[in-house]
Write a structure and sequence with these properties.
Distance between the termini: 16 Å
Number of domains: 1
Number of strands: 13
Strand content: 15-25%
CATH superfamily: Ribonuclease Z/Hydroxyacylglutathione hydrolase-like
Mean pLDDT: 96
CATH class: Alpha Beta
CATH architecture: 4-Layer Sandwich
Helix content: 25-40%
Bound molecules: zinc ion
Shape: globular
Length: about 260
């Protein structure tokens, strides 16, 4: 199993996860004009995608879904609550094929096993544990904190894609309005670099080879700052990179090689 971020920021979020038999996208916040070129840059077309998983209904995660489904009406997996928010905000050309997941219940998508878990954001939001053979990827972005049961569940992952949204010191001097700051720093907002590092430490990662820092704020964080802060909490042998904000990153199997 390997994965690759196509975009990771408040501008747009979209990640490809692939094994020998299955190719899924997690979220599709891409602009219409970016979908085909970004997929093409990692050797894929919309026709190659077997399914889409949706974490929540915020624009930066679902904006491009209607455009992607217009290319190929592939199955979409999320919870009933998230689908309700999605279909009340967006109109789709064809009726989307929605498959409701239940919290903490494993679902098979071809050769992959997908288990959603609840996160803490200002709309219903889920993270995922994705399994393929004996390999596991933990995926969590858009959460004010990492719930206790997630910390436990994620300790055995091989790869982790986790939010490091802002640097707390930079955020204090941010020009953002007070209500936005209050929301983003609160328990239903986003993880800071330190919160991300503390969560990784608390997970007690035993088998993890690679951590990808995701959803970095373009105004209130810097990749070097995020990497340096999180590295302070993480054993040296684990590869650590930050996903680029608006362009595709590298495939996970090539990182550190
Ligand atoms: Zn987001
Ligand atoms: Zn969000």
């Amino acid at each position: 199993m390997k994965f690759c971020s196509l975009s990771s920021s408040s501008y747009a979020n979209c990640v490809v996860v692939q094994d020998e038999n299955t190719c899924i996208l997690i979220d599709c916040g891409l602009r219409k004009r970016d979908i085909k070129p970004f997929l093409d840059s990692v050797g894929l077309t919309p026709g190659d995608i077997d399914a889409v998983l949706i974490t929540h209904s915020h624009n930066d995660h679902v904006y491009g879904l209607k455009h992607l489904l217009a290319e190929k009406n592939m199955p979409v997996y999320s919870t009933g609550g998230i689908f309700k928010e999605l279909t009340s905000t967006y109109t789709f050309k064809k009726t989307p094929n929605l498959y409701a997941l239940n919290q903490e219940q494993e679902e098979r998508i071809n050769s992959m096993r997908v288990t959603p878990f609840r996160l803490s954001h200002d709309v219903e939001t889920i993270g995922f544990m994705i399994g393929s053979g004996s390999r596991k990827l933990g995926f969590l972005t858009d959460t004010g904190f990492v719930p206790e049961d997630c910390l436990e569940a994620l300790h055995s992952v091989n790869y982790l894609y986790i939010e490091a949204n802002h640097d707390f010191e930079m955020y204090k001097y941010s020009a953002k309005p007070y209500y936005v700051k209050k929301r983003n720093l609160g328990p239903q907002g986003h993880l800071s670099n330190d919160q991300c590092g503390q969560a990784l430490k608390a997970m007690g990662l035993k088998k993890c080879e690679l951590v990808v820092l995701a959803h970095l704020s373009e105004d209130d964080n810097e990749p070097n700052k995020a990497l340096e802060t999180v590295r302070g909490y993480l054993p040296r042998q684990i590869n650590l990179v930050a996903a680029p904000a608006r362009t595709p990153g590298g495939w996970s199997d090539l990182i550190g090689k």
